[in-house]
Here is the input.
Amino acid sequence: MVDRHHLAHWYPTAAYLYVLSLDALALAWEYLRRHPEYRMNWLRRARRPDAAHRWGLRLLEDPALDARDAHPAWFPGHDAVIQLYPDADPPMDATAFAFWRIPGHKQLIHDGKRLVLIARSPGRCLRFALAPGLEDGMAVIYAHRGGTVAPTHSHALGMARPRPTSAALLELHTLQALDATLTGASLREVAEGLFGEDAAADWYSDGGLRSKVRRLVQRGDALMRGGYRRLAQLPPLEKGRFEGDAKRP
Here is the structure.
């Protein structure tokens, strides 16, 4: 049986269902915000104004906020962010920037450098960097990092797609397993929480389940301690820099 003092927040799988609709950027935040040292940096942020760059952020974000409420400003920006500019010479059929016609729950934030529009709907999260001077109703062109500038069409506004079900479920289980181990839960307790007590009944004879849980725990720890940078398309840490974080078990 699972030790009840571990059940505070990680045991109910229902609490993690929101993870199923997160994109790569949101998942990167979910792993980073669990890092014990990042959480300590947040508490001491007044004395470490430049601490955010260490983690690949422009500004420190509150680790108490999950991806539904947090707005981490990654540095540099992610390819998934669509950059919108006023079209100085629009064609007759130019697409206009229509703020209220963009589907989903919309939020405007300033990440310290630019105005960003985030639009969330079930299974989809769209992010737009708005150029200075862009107003509702203006003809727009869009750009992607590493790509060319082209006229904006409706299909471009739907580039973000839901993550495949199997991949989303893997992230859910990984985050749940990571939270469990951060509270001190054993591998068997993790197995019971994720897959049920019946599945873990033959724990000592079922090497397959033990291996699966061990991989989830190791994956979560690796993503928390630097692997999240790949999800956010950040450059890897320089060798020897913060190496203790990357290798700490």
Observations:
- Residues 90 and 225 are 46 Å apart (CA to CA).
- The mean pLDDT is 80.
- The chain has two domains: 12-70+164-243, 81-158.
- The longest strand covers residues 115-121.
